[in-house]
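FYI - complex with MF3, inputs then prediction.
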Amino acid sequence: MTGNPGPAISSNVRTEEEIQRMRLAGNAAAEVLLEVQPFVQPGVTTDKIDQIAHEAILERNAYPSPLNYRGYPKSVCTSVNEVICHGIPDSRPLADGDIVNVDVTLYLNGVHGDTSVMFFVGEVDEESKRLVLETRTALYAGIHSVKPGEPINTIGRTIENHARQHNLGVVREFIGHGIGTEFHSGLQIKHYYDPYDSTVIVPGMTFTIEPMLTLGSPTCEMWDDDWTAVTRDGSRTAQFEHTVLVTEDGVEILTKTKDGVVPAEQVLG
Ligand code: MF3
Ligand code: CO
Ligand code: CO
């Protein structure tokens, strides 16, 4: 197995049966984030977080979608401080004052669930807290802008406006995506306003929204591991991600537990 996916082929609209399976995958992904939460402490390595998540995923009879995806070496992404996304877990212990995103994607019963949250490690400075909290608010503003019949660029317009109001940058190189039987299906969800992207939002679509905002310039640079994306100016960056379903009159967040606990809403207290 090469780990390389073929071209995206699935429909943008899911069947009722696929949607039911996606709810279960979303439940499981949210539960894994909650299992990881107590380990996110100063002195704990991101390798340890990967191991905890990996085991929690297998316990649910799921597969960690990132593992060997296009050659990706680990089961989750852990993106610390100036790392925008796709940080590879390693032997560095988390330090007091770090901010870290843990991004869990799992494949359960033929469909994927994809979600990420930021954690504060120990005592975090006020600017970093502001960045993290406003990034979460930007994700929710984007989610609440989702309405059938509206163009999909509404999402990015809403997120970009929120970021601008708070003097935060929006990363453009990485975007949300359709998700279902494929990890990344054809649909593109930009987090900035693209006037040309007027794809109409339709009930039954499932996609992620996963804005990455920055305290400084959103210009990216790639480490020579070919995965780790960082801000060129070294400024801190934050990301939250949900998998959502478009309903007849709005949106349903799929990446919450079956009891309705939403990691993105409770991990920061
Ligand atoms: N979970 C990431 C996303 O939100 C993708 C990670 S791909 C990997 O789309 F290979 F880096 F894991
Ligand atoms: Co995603
Ligand atoms: Co993700």
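The longest strand covers residues 99-108. Residues 66, 69-70, 72, 77, 86, 103, 105, 114, 208, 210, 227, 241 surround MF3 (ligand 1) (CB under 6 Å).
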